[in-house]
């Protein structure tokens, strides 16, 4: 399920980033109360000691899930990974890997998962994972999962209304705080101010929607272009 970043360099032109609504995936359903907890740095507060068969411990920006059991060989380790990617290819997983070693498991039974926890709660993910692997014949297998909760990183600017909009990577210019804003797309993700918006990639979107893979296509803007909050939606705009 590891997703590759693809870099494509295009000739400079006047194309604008993601203008047409049909080019955008539908916005996921997000628990905004969870988003606020993440913004307050409390996403991993009050973790349960266990979720189903997994022991739960906190780690930097996430949790570690661990289930005791038999140690699988290389062949079964690959089958375990195949079952995971086949059954859990869900939009709420930003990316995942089976190419690292956990602190308490080798590469055969260690998964590295980046999860949008405000789209799929950790408890639901863990129980779905356990059920999936049980049905695949790994009910008695040891498993360790390093789960990074994507939203735990928080917004790139934490100064709220004092944050300035981000400038598109291809443009230069000066943002006028009191100037009019002319939106260039419908926006993606809810916001209260510019601090809730992230324009470091191809998309201008709410910070809690970032963290997944993007197809990188260099796009040149002919005028200063910014990512900010317009009518409570994060959108590219010009002044």
Secondary structure elements and their pairing?
Layout: E1 6-8, H1 32-39, E2 50-51, E3 54-59, E4 62-67, H2 74-87, E5 93-97, E6 110-115, H3 122-138, E7 143-149, E8 166-167, E9 182-183, E10 197-198, E11 205-206, E12 215-217, E13 226-230, E14 233-238
Helix pairs in contact: 2-3
Q: Number of DSSP strands?
A: 14
Oligomer: single chain
**What is the terminal-to-terminal distance?**
40 Å
Note the run of SSEs as H and E: EHEEEHEEHEEEEEEEE
The best one-word shape is elongated
How many structural domains can be distinguished in the coordinates? 2
Assess the beta-strand content as a share of residues: 15-25%
Helix share, percent: 10-25%
Widest sheet: strand ordering: 2-3-4-7-6-5
Structure summary:
The protein has 239 residues and is an alpha+beta fold. It has three helices and 14 strands.
Give a description of the structure.
The protein is of the alpha+beta class. It folds into two domains: 17-39 and 155-238, no CATH class; 50-149. The chain has three helices and 14 strands. The strands form four sheets. It has a six-stranded mixed β-sheet. Strand 10 (197-198) and strand 11 form a beta hairpin. The chain is elongated. It starts with 5 loop residues before the first strand and ends with a strand.
Features:
239 residues, 14 strands, alpha+beta, disordered N terminus, single chain, 4-stranded antiparallel sheet, 2 domains
